[in-house]
Amino acid sequence: MSELQLSTAAQVLYNFNVISGTDVELMLGVKAGDEACFERLLAKYRSPLVSFLYRMVRDRATAEDLAQETFLRVFRARKSYAAGAKFTTWLFRIATNLALNSLRDGRRRKTELSLDDTEAAEDRPALEVVDRGPAIEQRLIDQARARLIWAAVQALPEKQRAAVLLHKFHDVGYDEIARVLGCSQSALKSLLFRAYETLRVRLAPLVAAGTAGAGEGKQP
Amino acid sequence: MKCEQVRNALPILLAGRASREERGRLDAHLASCAGCARHADQMRSVWLALDELPGTEPSAGFDARFRARLAAQPARSPLLAWFPMPVRLAAAALVVAVIAAWFSLRPITGKRVATRAQAQDDFAVVKNLTVLENYDVISNFDALSALPGAEAAPRRME
């Protein structure tokens, strides 16, 4: 057995393969004008979609707005839905494109506002940390760890970020991720390899600690 | 298997999507290559660290806001709704093509014909004004001296 056969019990995986068996039927129902079918698709996919978008843009309100826009576009395009296309590929392709556009727009706005931000930051009061013993210390360590992970993921190029998030959290196969991102499977393999390598370097402090722990465990 | 191939395949292995055959080959390499085994350990730590990246659930008002947005969608004409999008696009392109063809091929009529004929006549008159070529003819033209006020003009000059 490989040591890399990981337990995924701690993860919340959205296994599309389990629930997508009837997606085509539901979408054909939507196409025929059955609103209940659309409600079922919305109920099935709003959580995974909002989570995916939140991890992409790191803003809850924007993530919800983009998820709603994704569902609106699905509804608007219901007449042109072809039964051969996998619903989740279609859904996540729309969501990914919307997220990428939103990130690009946000970057443009951020560039325009960066001077104002610098000035505003100088006026902000310094954060005060009240010492409440080991509990607050541990919380601060956890927060620092979470910030490091967030920063490493957010620093990935957007397409790599989308690939990693779909691969890690949504249990989607390479063929489907490739279709969502509009690239070949070999290009996706290369994209994922570069993304995980970048994360390995950026998360070096955590990786070193984890590896040291694993190494200690293996020693007799 | 080469080390590069093994490292490229680690994301598939981490996600548990490697085939049994592929997993066997990877395990065999990892058992014999300390460098790749260390690399695989680090990648596993990255994979586990990503579990700490929080997701989020839709807020309580998500559905209500979505229904409001859906209701605000403009209703499509029932007649157009019968036709799929490619057919509607083709029809629009045909209408544009017909209008463009009508503008480019329409016959010259009425005012445009009259304007062109008028311009040709004017040109013929100007072309035949040979008298302007000889200034002496104009300066010694008696008819000009006989005009009222013709004599008064030199006096004003003085």
Topology of this structure?
The complex is a heterodimer of chains A (220) and B (158).
Chain A lengths: L15 H4 L3 H9 L3 H23 L2 H17 L10 H37 L10 H21 L3 H12 L4 H8 L3 H18 L1 H15 L2
Helix pairs in contact in A: 2-3, 3-4, 3-5, 4-5, 5-8, 7-8, 7-9, 8-9
Chain B lengths: L2 H12 L5 H13 L1 H16 L12 H10 L6 H4 L3 H21 L4 H18 L7 H5 L2 H4 L6 H6 L1
Helix pairs in contact in B: 1-2, 1-3, 2-3
Please provide a written account of the structure.
- The complex is a heterodimer of chains A (220) and B (158).
- Helices cover 75% and strands 0% of the residues of chain A.
- Chain A is mainly α and 220 residues long.
- In chain A, helix 3 runs antiparallel to helix 4, helix 4 runs antiparallel to helix 5 and helix 7 packs antiparallel against helix 8.
- The N terminus and C terminus of chain A are likely disordered.
- In chain B, helix 1 packs across helix 2, helix 1 packs parallel to helix 3 and helix 2 packs across helix 3.
- At the A-B interface, helix 3, helix 4, helix 6, helix 7 and helix 9 of A face helix 1, helix 2, helix 3 and helix 4 of B.
In a few lines, what is going on in this structure?
The complex is a heterodimer of chains A (220) and B (158). By secondary structure, chain A is mainly α. Chain A has helices at residues 16-19, 23-31, 35-57, 60-76, 87-123, 134-154, 158-169, 174-181, 185-202, 204-218.
Keywords:
heterodimer, A: 220 residues, mainly alpha, 0% strand, disordered N terminus, B: 158 residues, 69% helix
Unreliable stretches of chain B: 152-158
Q: How would you name the oligomeric state of the polypeptide chains in this document?
A: heterodimer
The CA-CA distance between the termini of chain B, in Å, is 115 Å
Mean pLDDT score of chain B, rounded? 78
- The rough form of chain A would be described as globular
